[in-house]
Amino acid sequence: MASTRSVQRPSVRGVTLPCIVDLTSLGDCYKNSTDFKYGYDEEKPCFFMKLNRVFNWFPEPNDGKDYVELTCHFEEGDNEDLSLLPTDKPGFLAKFYPYFAEETWLAPIAAIKVNTTSAAVVLCEARAENIELSETYRLNRGATGKARIEIKQKK
């Protein structure tokens, strides 16, 4: 069910300003440099995730959190070589939503750093009270709140 709460976004002279993502919170997956390789030069790549725009959708985070939680794990093996960033709130801050088709709206991002050179499959889910993860929902709507990332070993 859609929420009817209102949102006040900051504005200057009637122009709505976007919420600002603190890119430094992405740790090893961000550096303000034109030659930054996002971990690919070390064979420890970073992948970036965002939620698709859903008009007038208000996230309902789990357990009183103020963000939609992103959980990721390897399909097989140990998860020690996987980092989610930002580490303090791994996911997407609820304050960025809802999307009202503003030209200045920017989606929040999260990063996944894979600290291994082995071939692997990473499975991720966006978790909130109003994100359905069932396979039935996926078949009916074409949306899952899930992502599968396949990493192949260099030959």
From TrEMBL:
State the name under which the record lists this protein: Positive regulation of calcium:sodium antiporter
User: Which keywords describe this protein according to UniProt?
Assistant: Membrane, Signal-anchor, Transmembrane, Transmembrane helix
Q: Which family does it belong to?
A: Belongs to the X(+)/potassium ATPases subunit beta family.
* Cellular component terms per the entry's GO annotation: sodium:potassium-exchanging ATPase complex
For this protein, the record's Gene3D superfamilies field holds: Na, k-atpase alpha subunit
Q: Which gene underlies this protein?
A: ATP1B1
Chief place of localization: membrane
Instruction: Kindly list the places in or outside the cell where this protein is found, as annotated in its UniProt entry.
Output: Membrane
Q: Which PANTHER family match?
A: NA_K-ATPASE BETA SUBUNIT ISOFORM 4-RELATED, SODIUM/POTASSIUM-DEPENDENT ATPASE BETA SUBUNIT
Q: Which InterPro entries match?
A: Na/K_ATPase_sub_beta, Na/K_ATPase_sub_beta_sf
The record describes its membrane topology as:
Single-pass type II membrane protein
Q: By its UniProt entry, which Pfam families does this protein fall under?
A: Na_K-ATPase
The record lists the organism as: Desmophyllum pertusum
- A GO BP annotation: intracellular potassium ion homeostasis
Q: Name one GO molecular function term.
A: ATPase activator activity
Query: What residue ranges are annotated as transmembrane?
Result: none
